[in-house]
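Record format v2
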Amino acid sequence: MRGIRIIGTGMYVPDTVASNDWLSTILDTNDEWIYSRTGIRERRISTDKPNFYMAEQASLAAVKNSGIDPSEIDLVLAATCSPDFFYPALSCLVQHTVGAVNAAAFDINSACTGFINALDTASRFLEDSDYRNILIVASERLAPHCDYTDRSASILFGDGAGAAVVTKNNKPMWSYLNAKGDYFNALYCKVDQSRSNCPLLKEDTVPEGLIDSEAKTHTLQMNGKAVYKFAVDAMQTAVTKVLEKSGLTKEDIDLYIPHQANARIIESAVKGLGLPEEKVYVNLEKRGNTSSACIPTCLAELGEAGRLKDGMKICLVGFGAGLTSGAIVFEQ
Ligand code: COA
């Protein structure tokens, strides 16, 4: 597939820090439990700014860093599972704010695998001569979806956004994408349809037994153990498959950026794959799981630190609600 080169990265995280100690004031939990089970010490929460604000800030930074004029962007792809609007797409708000006046725009929702799916999509668009520069942004405001009486899920998630401007590269890229829809009810957030005043509508249209009938709408529901097991397997499978496609060995890769869900998931997968730990980038201690925004915020931190070098072989791997998973290998 068409190689990509990242020419600019950007990120935005809200100012408000929600530490494990703070969570312990509202939940029956403590820093020791959370840190030892997840590797997370704190996460950011967007108390007063919408998701699109975070997406815009990350995108403006990425476009500025890329050095291109916004009018040279041909497509804006936004990955999110926590939009402010059902429609229009988040990408349309971003397209307007960054001034990408010549760009098409659409969203991708594959939850935490969103950035991987968006990057794969970008590569396929870049095959076409009409598309030269693509802005990809992944942004999540998950705090409004979390139930802060549920101590097993609310401790994991944080808010934030990451963005990258990508352009064509003649160097290679490979991707492996997967979905296991039979696990859809391991992690979901159900829309509240009871607000309609149409007298013909029945209150609940989801067949009995499909999801927990007591589940609160607009609230993240997770079977932590099922997701954990899936995640460790899915990460290993995705990395193995993408390396097989590429003909590269795990040692050929300079940098691995996994989805930042839980340090124990990352450690188990890294151990199972036999990857060199020093090549695996992890930032979840201070960010928590920001869903699709995890991988691009890692890229932005690495970009900021001057650690994204030309010629580097980078492997991104993610998983999330769906259940979806995927991995990409590209040479920067
Ligand atoms: N603080 C203190 N105790 C907690 C707690 C918390 N925040 N959350 C759960 N517990 C308790 C449980 O109530 C249970 O108590 P019990 O034994 O008295 O019933 C005990 O700790 C063990 O719970 P369990 O669910 O077995 O913990 P776990 O080791 O599986 O860890 C998760 C729970 C959610 C951290 C873990 O399953 C996980 O990380 N799953 C993957 C989730 C994920 O990554 N989701 C996003 C995917 S993109």
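The chain has two domains: 3-170, 174-184+218-331.
The two ends are 14 Å apart (CA to CA).
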